[in-house]
Design goal:
Elements: H1 5-9, H2 14-30, E1 35-39, E2 42-47, E3 50-57, E4 61-65, H3 67-80, E5 84-85, E6 90-93, H4 100-113
Antiparallel strand pairs: 1-2, 2-3, 3-4, 4-6, 5-6
Helix pairs in contact: 3-4
């Protein structure tokens, strides 16, 4: 989690910082083989040099970016969980609990789907 320390310190809202730290810590603990890193000024996790999931902080939500393939695959579940999404990210509102079960399935999907991927982003 040291890699994320400066990013987390830059989050002014204490509740947003705590939630972001909780989610990043959960990912690091649940998926210890993923590599935590900062790229494009955002925390993310990679596997064998390929992007798995990224996060960004917005005024009303923590944005979770699993790439478009992850959004398409989980679109119904994202809606059923009460989350809004765009083509590239899921919005986890600050004032709602995080559905860690859904987040786990999204990350597992990307790890498996990109197991043979040799580039950072999907084409």
């Amino acid at each position: 989690m040291e890699v994320f320390a400066e990013f987390l310190e830059g989050i002014d809202n204490a509740q947003h910082r705590a939630r972001t730290e909780e989610v990043l810590g959960w990912v690091a603990k649940k998926f210890p083989d993923l590599m935590p890193k900062i790229a494009w000024n955002q925390p993310m996790f990679t596997d064998h040099g390929t992007f798995i999931i990224g996060f960004s902080v917005a005024k009303h939500h923590l944005a979770v970016a699993p790439e478009r393939a992850g959004i398409i695959h989980f679109s119904d579940e994202i809606g059923q969980a009460g989350y809004d999404h765009s083509k590239m990210l899921v919005r986890f509102p600050w004032d709602s609990p995080v559905d860690f079960s859904l987040l786990e399935r999204i990350i597992e999907f990307n790890i498996l789907d990109k197991a043979d991927c040799s580039i950072f982003w999907r084409k």
